[in-house]
TrEMBL record:
Signal peptide: none annotated. It comes from the Bacteria. The chain crosses the membrane at residues 21-42, 69-91, 112-132, 152-176, 183-201, 207-225, 237-255. It comes from Cryobacterium flavum. GO terms for molecular function: endopeptidase activity; metallopeptidase activity. GO terms for biological process: CAAX-box protein maturation. This is CPBP family intramembrane metalloprotease.
Length: 263
């Protein structure tokens, strides 16, 4: 048999990576993006206006307290399996995947400083965009935490925030950037593609959060290409979600007209 041509060899060489990326996304945030697209179509074609609809995060899983805790804990723990999968896929002999993604404790001071800096850059405009979306009717009322609490509610919310931060930043930024670079994609094509994916799996919250998360994805992607580290991104995302989840009852008291779900 004659040897394969160079373009053919290139296609054969790249094909497994594309399959790998597709499988990873299908098992994680790619599937979330598909469901979110279906969700926003359903919301926009519903007779109820978008402003009068709501989306609940971290809702109760059972009226029985011990079952509620168990279901929520297991859901978070098993949700991290996709993170373990990408770390396994990025492992190389002699090179830790944590090092490859810049997710380690080699520079804690700079990572924390970068994380808090990004929190200010992303958090304040993000809150303003959400409130504007509620005021103009293109964002649903997002209920990020239950109002009836148990002793374990805040620890579970903090754990859920950590899961979201790890899942999104290690897969949508760290893993995806690494693999797409290996496939020869340009830097800005990777940044924009990752940002659009980030926005897509937030579409269930409305049109405003889509654009807000795309902007967040562009900023995070640019920072990752500059720093080569996901740790500051995880810090920022974790803090943002903790503030959103745990601070929701307080914010609801401040802006009930904008944040309260329709009765």
């Amino acid at each position: 048999m004659p040897p394969a041509s160079a373009p053919h060899r290139s296609r054969l060489g790249n094909s497994p990576l594309y399959w790998e990326i597709g499988i990873v996304l299908a098992l994680s945030l790619g599937a979330s993006a598909v469901y979110s697209i279906v969700s926003i179509v359903a919301r926009l074609t519903d007779t109820t206006p978008l402003a009068d609809q709501s989306a609940t995060l971290n809702g109760s899983q059972s009226p029985r307290e011990w079952l509620d805790f168990t279901y929520q804990f297991l859901g978070i723990a098993f949700g991290l399996a996709a993170v373990a999968l990408v770390l396994f896929l990025l492992w190389r002999p002699g090179q830790s995947p944590f090092t490859r993604l810049g997710f380690d404790f080699t520079r804690p001071g700079k990572d924390l400083l970068g994380g808090f800096g990004l929190l200010l850059v992303i958090g304040i405009p993000g809150l303003a965009l959400y409130l504007a979306g509620r005021a103009f009717g293109f964002t649903v009322a997002v209920v990020p935490s239950p109002l009836d609490t148990f002793w374990w509610t805040i620890p579970i919310l903090v754990f859920a925030a950590l899961k979201a931060a790890l899942l999104e930043e290690l897969i949508v930024v760290g893993y995806l950037f690494t693999r797409l670079r290996e496939l020869g994609w340009s830097t800005w094509t990777i940044i924009v593609s990752s940002a659009v994916l980030r926005g897509s799996y937030h579409l269930y919250q409305g049109v405003g959060p889509f654009f807000g998360n795309v902007a967040m994805g562009v900023v995070f992607g640019w920072c990752y290409t500059r720093w080569g580290r996901t740790m500051p991104l995880v810090v920022t995302h974790w803090l943002l979600d903790i503030l959103s989840f745990v601070g929701y009852p307080l914010a609801l008291g401040w802006w009930p007209g904008l944040l309260a779900p329709a009765s």
